[in-house]
Amino acid sequence: MDIEGWILAVLLLLAALLVLTLHKQRRVHLMLYEVRADVSASHRELQHLFAQVQSLLALERRLQLARPLPPLRGWAGSPDMLLRVAERVLDGKPGVVLECSSGTSTLVAARCCQLNGAGHVYSLKHDAVYVAKTRVLLAHHELADWATVVHAPLETGADGAIWYRDANLPPEATGAELLVVDGPPAGGDSQARYPALPRLRGRLAPHFALLLDDADRPGERRVVERWLQQDAGLQAEWLPCEKGLAVLEPKA
To answer: What is the pTM of this model?
Structure first.
């Protein structure tokens, strides 16, 4: 091989080494980017977790229960949302609380009524199994006298909407100053909770507050938009809870 051939071979080798080096550098950069993204995501998750622990501790201080609360993850209300419910009941002292869906939130509201020395919670639940579970939970915490869990199967109304059989609510479940909406489950219908306000408005006091959980979901945001379009006398506030919380009240 002549000198020019050797030079060409060396240049080709150097070019190959350069390409390999650049490829490895790119892989290293991508790995570092992924590591930074993972660290950032972990940091955000820790912040969320810390916020929920803080809310749980504050909630337990306000409730002063003799027995621990049930687990508050998954389908159950988040600690920050339940803390908002507790604050509304303890500070507003409603005589009647209406609730769409039952569970830990029913326990929290009932305990707050007990601490106030007045008030009663009426909770709609479509699933008979969970109706029984909530009643057992209330009895376990000696709060059965402060809440009524109403078995209200889902049915299609005259308006075509699927909603609880709210006719099962007793006559005294009226004049509610607080309505907590955490059901029914959306399933395939993102507007499943829309009927809450039009169907229960007649049972609400003139000055009421409606708390809608899961308000960060697009479907629930659309529900709030529809409620506001339906009644210009309402205003909405969005609170930064884990799953989002919308609060609707009549304008001052």
So the answer is: 0.81
